[in-house]
Design brief:
Blueprint: E1 19-20, E2 26-27, E3 39-44, H1 51-56, H2 59-64, E4 67-72, H3 76-85, E5 90-95, H4 96-104, E6 109-117, E7 123-127, E8 142-145, H5 150-161, E9 170-173, H6 176-185, E10 190-193, H7 197-203, E11 206-209, H8 212-217, E12 223-229, H9 230-235, H10 237-256, H11 258-269, H12 273-280, E13 284-285, H13 288-291, H14 306-319, H15 329-334, H16 339-344
Parallel strand pairs: 3-4, 3-5, 8-9, 8-10
Antiparallel strand pairs: 1-2, 5-12, 6-12, 6-13, 7-10, 7-11
Helix pairs in contact: 4-14, 6-7, 10-11, 11-12
């Protein structure tokens, strides 16, 4: 499996041959170029993920031969808005909950890869001094989370499965950096968010309130994905393949040399290598080969179970009145395109 094939360029020269015209005059060889984008707008999250290596070391620029405009976001809802406006071509790290919302609302993008099964990596953290030991203890408390994110989805699921509503708990919409600041000021009692914000909150008087395993059993499965604007994938398929190749190589670095990867990722995320490694170990990073299996995205044209996960998530979002309706399963199946993923392994 070639993870980083620098011999394959998105502007591949097509083979041409010399010929003789009807007049007997030797014609010049005609050389065609495969079109490629000059600039790619990529939305991303600052987090402890192998893809931060691909960003920091410039692998995506190298493989796509394009200038990348990196746009930092704080929630998947921001990616949905940007893609709908045409200002983002690729979203790296968007959660399954905002993706389910986006596909339900007809946003023109496709899931082209799964980064990870989040598991315990996103979790509720509570202030140790608040003495929150049960979900009922959250009554009257203030909990922050980025709205429209997988963390928001899980927090609402936690309240619902325990008979609570937002009348019982004040849920505040805060980006990860704003969450850390609010925590340090003492404005909130809890936060549902991912690393490195989660790590910083834990280091500043917080403790994990475990929820993920019960929520997964109740159907609140969450994952981080890569989406690409459908029109962009159709116009520049080689660029999407190149982005996935860069991600494959980054995952390979984490798998084979975790200490080196943690150091590189920590620098990008603004945490120590030790903290980065601890955070990384909480994720289940799904290899490209596993993604193509029926339990995940599935092979091109065959589909996988993940489409059902997205539809199930959309049903919850309708209950929460975040979106209006749930489309047929076929909409989610069509919203998954693994053809670029297959090519990224060639």
């Amino acid at each position: 499996m070639t993870l980083f094939d620098t011999s394959a360029s998105r502007r591949t020269l097509l083979k041409a041959s010399l010929g003789v015209a009807a007049t007997g005059v030797l014609t010049a060889p005609r050389i065609a170029r495969a079109a490629g984008p000059d600039k790619i707008n990529i939305a991303y999250f600052v987090g402890t993920s192998p893809t931060m290596i691909a960003k920091g070391d410039g692998w995506i620029e190298e493989l796509t031969k394009a200038k990348v405009n990196w746009i930092e976001v704080g929630s998947g809802a921001e990616i949905n808005t940007a893609v709908a406006a045409g200002s983002v071509d690729v979203g790296i790290g968007i959660g399954s909950a905002p993706t389910a919302a986006g596909l339900s609302q007809g946003i023109g993008y496709e899931v082209v890869s799964i980064l990870d099964n989040i598991g315990p990596a996103e979790e509720l953290t509570v202030r140790t001094s608040a003495n929150i030991k049960t979900v009922a203890d959250l009554k009257g408390k203030k909990v922050g989370t980025p709205f429209g994110s997988t963390s928001h989805f899980r927090l609402l699921g936690l309240l619902k499965t325990n008979g609570l509503t937002q009348k019982d708990v004040t849920v505040l919409d805060l980006r990860p950096d704003a969450l850390v600041a609010a925590w340090q000021r003492g404005d909130i009692d809890g936060a549902y968010v991912w690393a490195p914000a989660k790590s910083k909150i834990l280091a500043a008087g917080g403790e994990v309130f475990r929820t993920y395993d019960k929520l997964e059993a109740a159907g609140y499965v969450i994952a981080d994905l890569i989406v690409a604007r459908t029109a962009f994938t159709q116009a520049y398929p080689d660029a999407v393949v190149a982005i996935l190749k860069a991600g494959n190589k980054a995952l390979d670095v984490w798998t084979k040399t975790p200490d080196k990867a943690a150091e590189l990722i920590g620098k990008q995320a603004g945490v120590t290598a030790a903290v980065a490694k601890e955070d990384l170990l909480q994720y289940d990073f799904v290899s490209p080969e596993r993604q193509l299996q029926p339990d995940w995205l599935g092979a091109p044209g065959k589909g996988g179970k993940f489409a059902e996960v997205l539809q199930g998530t959309a049903k919850f979002l309708v209950e929460q009145k975040s979106i209006r309706s749930v489309p047929e399963l076929a909409v989610f199946q069509k919203g998954i395109n693994t053809a670029p993923l297959v090519k990224s392994l060639a």
